[in-house]
Amino acid sequence: MDENKLDELRELVDFLKENGIAEFDMERADLKVRIKFAGAAGASAADLAMARQIVAGGVAASLPGAGAPAVAATPAAEPEEKLHEVKSPIVGTFYESPSPGASAFVTPGDMIEVGQVLCIVEAMKLMNEIESDVAGEVVRRIASSGQPVEYGQPLFAIRAREERRKSS
Amino acid sequence: MGIRTVAVYSEADRHSLHVKFADEAICIGPPKSAESYLNVPAVISAAEIADVDAIHPGYGLLSENANFAEVCRASNIKFIGPPPEVTRLMGEKSTARQTMKKAKVPILPGSDGVIESEGSALEWAKSVGYPVILKAVAGGGGRGMRIVRTPVELPGLFQQASSEAAGAFGNGDLYMEKFIERPRHIEFQVLADEHGHVLSLGERECSIQRRHQKLIEEAPSLMVTPKLRQELGQTIQKSLKDIGYWNAGTIEFLMDEDGKIYFIEMNTRIQVEHCVTEMVTGIDLVKAQLRIAAGEKLSDIVPGPVAIRGHAIECRINAEHPEKFTPSAGKITAFNLPGGNGVRVDTAQYAEGVVPPYYDSLIAKLICHGKDRTESMNKMQRALSQFVVQGIHTTIPLHQKIFDDPEFRAGNFDTKFMERFFERQAAERAEAKT
């Protein structure tokens, strides 16, 4: 591993330690990282309190009722075109930014690539970065920050870019 | 009890009854159990976002998973069941046997560990008493297993078993257990609070099995005398109190042809057939589980002495062909449930419901209670004839045949009953052709 990558890793480890994160998983086109701190607790009590506040004050009503599918905080008007929905692969709490106060990973209008991080779903004190499975334009953010989401719940509507398939 | 509920479900169970009737429901994964119902992070994450106080693990899946119970504890969620350490202790066959042996619960006699030689085997067999079974230490599935009925055949069978085990598992070591030719499966239901009180609620007999899967269970057992029920109940209560058991559990025994009873294993959870005990004792076991987990005392949950009234029988109705036993997934087009005094149906299926192909084939439990065994059997026959399921195959016709069978009706059975029953059925069909 070259010096640059090693520095990157050191910075990452420091960042994680500073923020009291116990486990971290990341996969990018060029790099796959998994870090686990022995014996570390999860997020600090302050972070947890903040997360709880966001959940409680926010959208308790959007937890699915008996039999009804999960309802997004922003009511979705029927799209005229068929947009691709990026769905949550895990159960947890949706956050649009990497940390409170920071700007969102993506906003409507942004052009994104496959594998680009769109949001975080936090589960059991672990921040899981959710990547896009298509390239294209972000049309709409369906879930809102602090909202509990279930497996398969739509998070973003993307207008997928037409890929010209090349035969190799 | 006024407790709000959150159902977790896989995508395959989106239209399941528990999802429809729970106050809230959260999808935790795709149909494959490993990615949903057995997925501990997904279950815990759902519990956290719903902010639950406790988790009831049901039966199967994570219910006897000590790691899961530990994660619940670490996440400040009450696991409705015993402490993880106790689950681990009683979940492992050898530690469970040792624990029960120390508490003077009769266990199936066997060699302590590996048998070194044929000479040693002969001595063990003499002390255990023939017939005995030699088993491979390193594996199962019938390989490296030999039943020995006389001392004369022991040395030869010992060699055979050892070579077979060496060939199959790379290890020819053998141990020995007493072999019961025609065992009856008897199990005792217990409840324990978190304050050191344990109560035995009597036994169930579950000898009607096909390939080690129970088909029919009943309470009480025709073979358990009041004296045995009382004495074994006391011994069990003391042994579980000593290990610090909490919540519901079942201790399983085999009874030999002479009526002697031997511990085989413990299930540290509520069981499928808990309903028959509920019918004869009048005690709601699942409700008791919730109250125990909430810290209540057993003396408040079960105020008086446990009385066994009448007789109850349960039929497990599976979505399978009644003769070929091939699983029958699909859409149910008609579903009529029997009713009446002493007839209970526990089911998660309904008309227009779909039986998914991913899970266990059990779709309903039909339980009948009567003043005695004859009345409950007759009631069961009537109820089975009124239980209409169309669109899929079910084992209802099989149960109807069993309840017509003279051996079953007389109570003459052991765990080999179904084998003999199928032979009788085949013989009858052959005769009918001639």
How does this structure look, described?
- The complex is a heterodimer of chains A (168) and B (434).
- Chain A has helices at residues 3-18, 45-57; strands spanning 23-27, 32-36, 84-87, 92-95, 111-112, 117-123, 126-131, 136-141, 148-149, 154-160.
- In chain A, 17% of the residues lie in helices and 29% in strands.
- In chain A, a hairpin with a 4-residue loop joins strand 1 (23-27) and strand 2 (32-36).
- Chain A is of the alpha+beta class and 168 residues long.
- Chain A starts with a helix and ends in an 8-residue tail after the last strand.
- The longest helix of chain A is centred in the N-terminal third of the chain and has 16 residues, at 3-18.
- Chain A is built from 2 helices and 10 strands, in the order αββαββββββββ.
- By secondary structure, chain B is of the alpha+beta class.
- Chain B folds into 3 domains: 6-82, Rossmann fold, CATH 3.40.50.20; 118-122 and 129-178, 2-Layer Sandwich (Dna Ligase, domain 1), CATH 3.30.1490.20; 184-427, ATP-grasp fold, B domain (D-amino Acid Aminotransferase, Chain A, domain 1).
- Chain B is built from 15 helices and 19 strands.
- Chain B has helices spanning 17-21, 40-49, 66-74, 84-91, 93-102, 118-128, 154-169, 226-243, 274-281, 285-293, 298-301, 373-386, 396-404, 406-410, 417-433, and strands at 6-10, 24-29, 54-55, 78-79, 132-136, 146-148, 174-178, 184-192, 198-210, 213-219, 247-255, 261-267, 311-318, 330-331, 334-336, 343-347, 354-355, 362-370, 388-390.
- In chain B, a hairpin with a 2-residue loop joins strand 9 (198-210) and strand 10.
- The model of chain B has no long low-confidence stretch (mean pLDDT 94).
- The interface between A and B is medium-sized, with 19 and 23 residues.
